[in-house]
Amino acid sequence: MTHVKDAIEAGESPLGTWISVGHPTIAEAVAQLDIDFLLVDMEHTTMGLETVESIARSVDAADGETETVVRVPWNDPVRLKRVVDIGVAGVMVPMVGTAEEARELVRAVRYPPDGIRGIAGSRATEYGRNFEEYVANANGTILTIAQIETEAGLENAAEIAAVDGVDALFVGPADLSGALGKFAEWDSQSLTTAMASVIEAGNDADVPVGTLVTDLDDIDTRVQQGHDFLIAGKDVALLMDGVDEAIDRYDAAFEETTPAEQD
């Protein structure tokens, strides 16, 4: 069992942040902070498996308990198999629309007889040194998150949450707002109602529900709405916000020290 999966199952509120820059230095630096997990995005970035493996190594090497969760590009057992073989703490799958798709996700990250994950030596098995013990005990130890971000997923959220082996639901606010015809209208009643229905489905199944906040001012709102955990901020956006603030402070400092023009 991993730290973040333990926290999810214990009803705690682990905090993550989003990694879209494919360089281990970013992950290594953030993993030194008091944060529970990094969500490494393979869906909307150019990152390949070797990069993700290097990121996982850098996170594991950092002090503390920060862990790596990977969002794969699609609910594909081959992609999932190769990611979990790296030895990450969990996976998140986009656009899960039905209970059957959720069951396929669970089967993809579990060995037979519970699933279809192929058996082989890998980083997860310490390159074969821990092969038999790992295979015997791995099922149920990988945090498994289904993203709800389509109309189908919204309609079937209760059935998806009820699938044995789905550890958490995750509302994808951008795609869900687009599916509702309210793209980027983060405060729209339609999106608020939809998110509330996913939270209700999770609560009914005793399955935590998380979401992403890119504007840190929204953290209080999302917590008050009933989300159980958050991914707060994206690496590129946080970097740009920091540089923007530096620019503003720099300009303000020179404006304060420039003598007023004489008449």
Automatic annotation (TrEMBL):
It comes from the Archaea. The keyword Metal-binding applies. GO terms for molecular function: aldehyde-lyase activity; metal ion binding. Keywords: Lyase, Metal-binding. The keyword Thylakoid does not apply. Residues 16-240 form the HpcH/HpaI aldolase/citrate lyase domain. GO terms for cellular component: cytoplasm. Pfam families: HpcH_HpaI (PF03328). Belongs to the HpcH/HpaI aldolase family. This is Aldolase. It comes from Halomicrobium mukohataei.
